[in-house]
């Protein structure tokens, strides 16, 4: 398969492994900032091919995982409302909120799938425009789309709002939780606990936004940032480029993923995002409030904000989350999934305690899928 097999070529991968080993003279710690990269690293065992001096840690590269508990709880509460169709991408349906489980005779749904099982009209969609179509076809119901994701999915959400406004739809709205990657990287590097010496930046985010804004972060914190793809050869090449910079004392932005990413990104996608959204502070699950790290609807489109429509009779209050889950530490790269006492026992994909075990891009899900059996038999 052209453009796939060549980036999984074992001989080429081994050449990069050897080049990394030859170049490395001291310990370095790198963080990948994309869940897709995390899964590739764990699936193909790339971290185990590297010299012992190189440590890969996993960052908050899964937008599902970093969606605040307050937003999840609000989504669950909205999905309970009568005459309301709640639409979401599939990986959000099983993300647990903070709501406690009730008594056996009156259980409290802790995720959207449980709401659906209890009669709520929760629907999985593949595009925000599917939710717009549902609003057109169900004028007697409010249709709410759960807008979650990095910069990658924000343009499609913006287009859905733009189309709904054009059509004068009054029964369509969004529960918005779009987050921005560069401010999160900046926040991680500003932490006194930060271990990151170099970043593998998310190639799909940079396909939309470009990588011009990463230069200031690299210079301010003196860390190299390499825009990297998702296949094994991509990731090993990105690591090699990052180690080259570290070994020579450079802190620059490099683009490994040139077949997809341009410095300016996709101006058309950026234009519709800017028209519909404005930058706001955003709460990240496990990381806290990060300034200028989220997107909210501009005043022009405020009528499409589900939280401003009065769809909920009372505000949602957040319960204390379980202390058995250390997903916050995992999302910051301070711990790995295998070090969590709940991993693989109290917390599994069938019964997740935290979002990183649910999402297809979550670090815990990657370790459970590709390394749980090895850990259990070791």
Q: Can you put this structure into words, describing what you see?
A:
- With 378 residues, the chain is an alpha/beta fold.
- The protein has a domain at 67-180 and 266-308: HypD, alpha/beta domain 2 (Rossmann fold, 3-Layer(aba) Sandwich), CATH 3.40.50.11740.
- 38% of the residues lie in helices and 17% in strands.
- The strands form two sheets. It has a six-stranded mixed beta sheet with strand order 4-3-5-6-11-10, with helices on both faces.
- The radius of gyration is 21 Å and the shape is globular.
- The two termini are 36 Å apart.
Short description:
Helix content is 38%, strand content 17%. It has helices spanning 10-23, 35-44, 46-49, 63-66, 69-79, 112-117, 128-137, 154-166, 181-190, 203-209, 214-221, 232-247, 267-276, 327-331, 363-377, and strands at 28-32, 54-58, 84-88, 122-124, 142-149, 172-179, 198-202, 225-228, 253-255, 277-284, 288-297. The chain is globular and about 65 Å long.
**Lateral strand order in the biggest sheet:** 4-3-5-6-11-10
Rg of Cα set: 21 Å
Shape from CA axes? globular
CATH-assigned fold name of the domain at 67-180 and 266-308: Rossmann fold
What is the overall pLDDT average? 91
CATH architectural arrangement of the domain at 67-180 and 266-308:
3-Layer(aba) Sandwich
Percent of residues in helices comes to 25-40%
Q: State the secondary-structure class.
A: alpha/beta
Which percent range describes the beta-strand content?
15-25%
Runs in which pLDDT lies below 50 for 5 or more consecutive residues are 101-107, 374-378
């Amino acid at each position: 398969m052209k453009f796939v097999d060549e980036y999984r070529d074992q001989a080429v991968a081994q050449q990069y492994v050897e080049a990394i080993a030859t170049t490395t003279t001291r310990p370095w710690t790198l963080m990948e900032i994309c869940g897709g990269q995390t899964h590739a690293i764990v699936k193909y065992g790339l971290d185990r091919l590297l010299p012992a001096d190189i440590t890969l840690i996993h960052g908050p590269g899964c937008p599902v995982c970093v969606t605040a508990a307050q937003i999840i709880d609000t989504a669950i509460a909205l999905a309970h409302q009568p005459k309301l169709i709640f639409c979401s991408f599939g990986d959000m349906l099983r993300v647990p909120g903070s709501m406690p489980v009730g008594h056996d005779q009156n259980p409290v749904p802790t995720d959207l799938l449980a709401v659906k099982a209890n009669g709520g009209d929760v629907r999985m969609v593949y595009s925000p425009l599917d939710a717009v179509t549902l609003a057109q076809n169900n004028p007697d119901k409010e249709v709410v789309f759960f807008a979650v994701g990095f910069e990658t999915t924000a343009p499609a959400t913006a287009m859905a709002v733009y189309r709904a406004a054009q059509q004068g739809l009054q029964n369509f709205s969004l529960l918005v939780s779009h987050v921005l990657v560069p401010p999160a990287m900046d926040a991680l590097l500003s932490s006194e606990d930060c271990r990151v010496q170099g970043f593998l930046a998310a190639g799909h985010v940079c396909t939309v936004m470009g990588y011009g804004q990463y230069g200031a972060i690299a210079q301010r914190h003196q860390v190299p940032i390499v825009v990297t793809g998702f296949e094994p050869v991509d990731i090993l090449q990105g690591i090699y480029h990052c180690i080259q910079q570290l070994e020579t004392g450079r802190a620059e932005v490099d683009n490994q993923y040139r077949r997809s990413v341009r410095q300016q990104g996709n101006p058309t996608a950026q234009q519709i995002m800017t028209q519909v959204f404005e930058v706001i502070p955003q709460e990240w699950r496990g990381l806290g409030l990060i300034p200028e790290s989220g997107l909210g609807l501009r005043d022009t489109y405020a009528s499409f904000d589900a939280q401003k429509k009065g769809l909920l009779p009372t505000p949602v209050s957040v319960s204390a989350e379980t202390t058995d889950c250390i997903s916050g530490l995992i999302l910051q790269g301070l711990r790995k999934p295998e070090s969590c006492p709940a991993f693989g026992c109290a917390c599994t994909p069938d019964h997740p305690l935290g979002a990183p075990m649910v999402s297809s891009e979550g670090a815990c899900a990657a370790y459970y899928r590709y390394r749980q059996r090895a850990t259990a038999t070791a």
